[in-house]
Amino acid sequence: MNLELATAGESHGPGLVAILTGLPAGLTLDRDAIDDDLRRRQEGYGRSPRQRIEQDRVEVLAGLRHGRTLGSPLALVVRNRDHKNWTWGMSPWPPGGEPQGKGTKAVTLPRPGHADLAGVQKFGLADVRDALERASARHTAVHVAAGAVAKALLAQIGIEVRGEALPEAGADPAAVDAARKDRDTLGGVVEVRARGVPPGLGSYARKEDRLDARLAAALMGIQAVKGVEVGDGFALAQLRGSEAHDEIGTNRRRTSNRAGGIEGGMSNGEEIVVRAGMKPLPTLMKPLASVDLETGEAANALVERSDVSAVEALAVVAEAAVAWELARAAREKFGGDALADFVGSWRAYVERIS
Ligand SMILES: Cc1cc2nc3c(=O)[nH]c(=O)nc-3n(C[C@H](O)[C@H](O)[C@H](O)COP(=O)(O)O)c2cc1C
Description:
By secondary structure, this protein is an alpha+beta fold. The protein is 32% helix and 18% strand. Flavin mononucleotide binds next to helix 10.
C-alpha cells in the first residue's frame, strides 16, 4: 500500500487531524523532532501574535506503540489552542446560550486574494467564515507533522530534506518592518534541497509518475504558492543547450546541477533543488476594496489578525511537502511492510546501480 495522507481541521476549530497510511512497521519516531518542526513553522520575522498563542504540539492517537510505527494508520492531532477564544463561534455543534468570544458575527466582507468570495459562491455559504476557516494556511501545521514523519522514513535510506527562505522580500527583516509600518504585506521565495536521493525515484512512464510534476503539485498545493521552479527553472529558458545541461562524468556524476537533480521525470542522483514563489499575504491591515455581500454596497475587505510575511514558515511547510512526496516515491520504489524490508530493498538497488 502506498503512503497516503488525509487531513481535516479548521483554523479556529478544536484541532487539526492527519491520518497517514502506508508507513512500514518498525519506524522509530521522535516526538521532539516533530514538535521542533511545528515550532520552526511558527517562527520567522513578520508572523502575527497568534503564533505565540498556539505553540503547536503533536498528539498521536493511533498507529504508534512505544515510539515505533505498527504498520497501521498513524493518526496525528495538533490542537488549536486559540480555539478557547472561539468555543461558541466555532462550536462543531449548535452552541446554544449567549454568543460569546470570537466568530459570533457572520463575515460578509470577502478579502481579495483569499478563497473568501469564490468559496461562498461555490459552496452556497452565507458566512465567509465557513470558507476561510478551512482555506486558511493554519492546517499546514498538520502537514508539517506528516512531513516530519516522512523525513524520519527518508533518513533510514540516507535522504535529508531542508527548506530555507531566500534572503529577500518577506525574509528580509528591514523590508518586513517597512511593510508593517505601511500596514502592507510581503511574499518571497523558498528553496528546498534534498540530499542523498538515489537515481530513479519517479518515472518517465506516465506523466503523473514524473517526480518533477509531483513535487510541483505538492508545492503548488500550499496556500499562496504561485510559481515553482526545478533546478535553474525559468533561467534555463534563456540559455543555449550547450550551457544548460549537466555533463556526465565516467563516475556517472555531474559537474553541475542545473537540472536540480531531476531528468526525465526521475531523480538522477544529484541534489534535488526546487523553489517556490509566494504571493504577498492577502489580509491587509490597510484593507483592499471589496463588496459587502449582505448589502451589495462597496466596502473594505475584512481585517483579521494576520502575518506581514510568512516566507520563513513557508520554507518549513515546503520542506514537509517535498519530504512527503519523496517518501511516497521511495515507498513506491522500495516497498516493504517492515522497515527492514524497505531498507533492504533500497540497499540492494543502490548496490546494483553502483
Ligand atoms: C504558512 C503560511 C501562513 C500564512 N499566513 C497568512 C496570514 O497570516 N494572512 C494571510 O492573509 N495569508 C496567509 N497565508 C496565505 C493565505 O493562506 C493564502 O494567500 C490564501 O490561502 C490564498 O492563496 P491561494 O490563492 O494560493 O489559495 C499564509 C500562507 C502560508 C503558507
